[in-house]
Amino acid sequence: MIRTLRRLWNRTGGSFSGHRRESDLTEELDAHIQLLAEDNIRRGVPPDDALRHAKLQFGSVESAKESYRDQRGLPALDAIGQDLRYAFRWIRKNPGFAAIAILSLGIGIGANTAIFSLVNTVLLKPLAYQDPDRVFTIREVVFDSRGQRSVTPVNPVHAREWAKHCPSLEQVALMGASTANVIAGGEPASIPAVDVPHNFFALFGVEPILGRPFLPEEEKEGSNPVVILSESLWRSRFSADRSLIGRSILVDGQNHEVVGIVPGPLRLPYHGQTNARFEIFRPLVLAQEELSRIMGNFNYGAVLRVKRGVSAEQALAEINVVQARFPAQLGRKEDLKATLIPAHELFVGRARLGLWVLAAAVGAVLLIVCINLANLLLSRIASRSREAAIRTALGASRGRQFRMVLTESLMLAVCGGALGLLLASWSVQALVATTNLDIPRLEELRVDSNVLMFAFCITLLTGLVFGALPAWRLTRNDPQQALRAGSHTVTEGRHGLRVREGLISVEVALSAALLIVAALLTSSLTRLLQVDKGFDADRVLTVDIGLTGSLYAEAAHRENFFNRILPKIGSIPGVQASGVVTYLPTLGQIWNDPIYLEGAPRESRYPVDNRYASPGYFRTMNIAIRAGRAFEENDRGRGVAMLSARAAKLLWPTDPNPVGRSFMGEDDKLKTLVGIVAEVRAELHNEAPPTAYYPYWQRAPDVVSLVVRTTGDPQTAVGAIRATLRGEDAQLPIDTIRTMEEVVDRSVAQRRFQITLMAVFAASALLVASLGIYGVVSYSVARRRNEIGIRMALGAQRSQLLGLIVRQGMAPVLVGLAAGVAAGLMLSRAIRSLLFEVQPADPLTVAGVTGVLLAVGVSACLIPARRAAGTDAIAALRFE
Amino acid sequence: MSTKAEVWQGTLALMVLKTLNALGPQHGYGIARRVEQTSGDLLSINHGTLYPVLLKLEQEGAIASEWGVSENNRRAKFYGITKAGQKQLASEVNQWAQATEIVARFLALKGAKT
């Protein structure tokens, strides 16, 4: 047994022998014959005859070698080796074709691998929590008395009751996100922070690498402030100092004792914060006042972990039972429910459709590349069928020949796959290094074993797809016929052409569908960028200011800060206007609070987006004032507000100019309406929400965006703005000062990235398909040279010939076009949610795509057609 | 036909092992000559068939080869028996003795009847 295995092993090695063993064998046998000859001489044979005798005695050297070789390796392996050698030789003899094949496969496989690594990271890879499938984000669903549904963050009282009364839940934890100013090692920085209860880390299964998690008593009001840091923050700002535990650091201007270090930064399934990487954790301290408000105060993010074996529906049913009690307790008519979102879903929900569209698109491109290569190989069958026939005649079996031809295409695919993997890992690295896309989990992107496996499988699949059909057709040829006829007249026949025309139809259909989707997405982006945002981003700079330190704990201090810096910023040379606002437009931030007429019933309270602004904000952003005026400095001390036209319509549907009337604002106090302003979009792709503006001094906010309009190049004012802020407070963390255009652009960056890729894929599909059309038509023209010659001799006009060739060449294109447009329209309906102000069946897009494909198809036909029509009839006839 | 070849190859392998065991490392020609001499020149082997047998024995690990210089200063490949080869030889000698004994008994039986 061991002997057999050992022999098998050695024979496997023998299959990979090469020239050395072969020359060893020759030398050994030569030596043998020489020794034999010398013995013969010794025995008295005449020297002239000795060698001849020796050779006779030895028998056939070649046959000895042959049986030796059979023993040396494994015949099956040897055959594969032979196939590979033939394939290599064939590729070397067709370098042009091989280069095109490898390059196009490399790009196709590379793009697929890169997109797959994106899909793998963002959609498929589980989150880095323990048993992430049992972690859900919970949000509350409020149905007001009119039955209108709104989804809100979580009320802390409710969360406490769920934990108490729902047996399916293992843990529930609230989260309150903020940013914290930390001063350590140089510049002060504002860092994403989250306040969490003591069971928070246990819920996610995150163990501190140093120190301990929070204790229940640390959640009580008045207890010593403590903080837990992420490992990355600890390493980058505290040089991984292990003695930091137990020491105090300054967070928001207050001493906090560091009690633990956890791995991270952590990404949390926190609605609206999925892109934040939290680095600072503080105990969540709930004020007594907060715990007494049963309805309202929906302000916290919340996560829960269900018990093993419990379904989400079951947990939700239990929660909804608890939820129903709260409005009932207050005797209210509202209905309260909850919704559970799987943690993973919260991260990828938005990105999923877009990524699958990209994956499908890039897959289609690779399919087109395969079809084109199959077509190219098919056109080579004519020249190879003679070779195949000779092989068959010499006794090669069909299966063996099939395998041989398939080996060629697999070899091309493997070369292409290697190139593709290289391209993919470059592009993935480049993407991670340069991107500013807010694709969730993008920083985890890398080429891992899953990606390698994918690349390997797709490479083999590619080789099979484009190689199988040509290999099958080649080995199906009748060798007798092929040998009888002269090689240049051997053609694949009418049937073969039909197959290739069918392939062209598929290529064109795929390209048409891709083009339609890409065109719809592109016009969505164009329209999105042209949409009336309600403000003018030109020459406006912006920077966020966070007044979160203990210096600014009092509203008066914050107000004073703004009172002081706004005039200073305004007097910087080159600054035309400046102001502050709580949330910049287009970033998707909305803060809803009700407005209502004094004494109005609860049903007539309207939730509107509310923003606090300085008087200069509207002038800086060029927000049109439709009626009345903007805030003024002398509004201080009076209750004033501005409304967007739409918000004013809610309160006074019939009054064309309600300026001067009064209503109840977000603080339940009477406000005089001083002005009505144009609608400003909170998100680019959504209609502007009704908005109320209050002067900043009414509720001095702790986080604002400063906006500055300059007269000239905005970049020249950046230094002066920074210096002014620094001069006011040297410890204030200052972010990068950006132009408003950059901010708007960022909000469409992901869309633009997707669309750029789609456009590239669609364009390459079109290019490859046009090459395919050209290839088939020029081949069929070459095949019919004789016939064309006869037609010309019989008096056919050049234009008639052109028409004939183009008509026949376009037939499969038209079939494919019809199928592709139908498929594209179906697809575009599926991606309706990615479109903006474009109908899925936009007639202009369909017409445009059809036009482009027809034009490309006709020109691909015309080049070979003109060549054919330009030939001399005599030459064409002599060609035979 | 093929079974005959098998038997013949099997015995040739045994002869090669025995020769190498008795005489130490030999080149291919030397082995062929010794085998012929030992058989009292009754056996004439086709030298060409020797090499596949040597290869098989080497792949099985029964013999090992090394390039060396022959008695008349020619580069030649020398084969020597290995430990595993000696074991294999011993067991094959046993088997062979058994087989011949059985055959001999049958032949004796045949002779008694006629």
List the topology elements.
The complex is a heterodimer of chains A (880) and B (114).
Chain A: H1 2-15, H2 19-42, H3 47-58, H4 61-72, H5 75-93, H6 95-124, E1 135-143, E2 149-152, H7 156-165, E3 169-183, E4 188-196, H8 200-204, E5 210-211, E6 226-230, H9 231-238, E7 248-251, E8 254-262, E9 280-283, E10 301-306, H10 312-330, E11 335-342, H11 343-393, H12 398-434, H13 449-476, H14 479-484, H15 493-530, E12 540-546, H16 555-570, E13 575-581, E14 592-595, E15 606-613, H17 616-620, E16 625-628, E17 640-644, H18 645-651, E18 662-664, E19 670-677, E20 691-695, E21 703-710, H19 718-728, E22 738-739, H20 740-747, H21 749-783, H22 785-793, H23 798-830, H24 843-869, H25 873-878
Parallel strand pairs in A: 4-9, 6-8, 15-20, 17-19
Antiparallel strand pairs in A: 1-2, 1-10, 1-11, 3-4, 3-10, 5-8, 6-9, 7-8, 12-21, 12-22, 13-21, 14-15, 16-19, 17-20, 18-19
Helix pairs in contact in A: 2-3, 5-12, 6-11, 6-12, 6-13, 7-10, 11-13, 11-15, 11-21, 12-13, 15-21, 15-23, 15-24, 16-19, 21-23, 21-24, 23-24
Chain B: H1 2-23, E1 26-27, H2 28-38, H3 47-60, E2 63-69, E3 75-81, H4 83-113
Total helical segments of chain B? 4
Category by helix and strand content of chain B = alpha+beta
Helix and strand string of chain B, N-terminal first? HEHHEEH
How many DSSP helices of chain A?
Answer: 25
Helicity of chain B, as a percent range: 55-70%
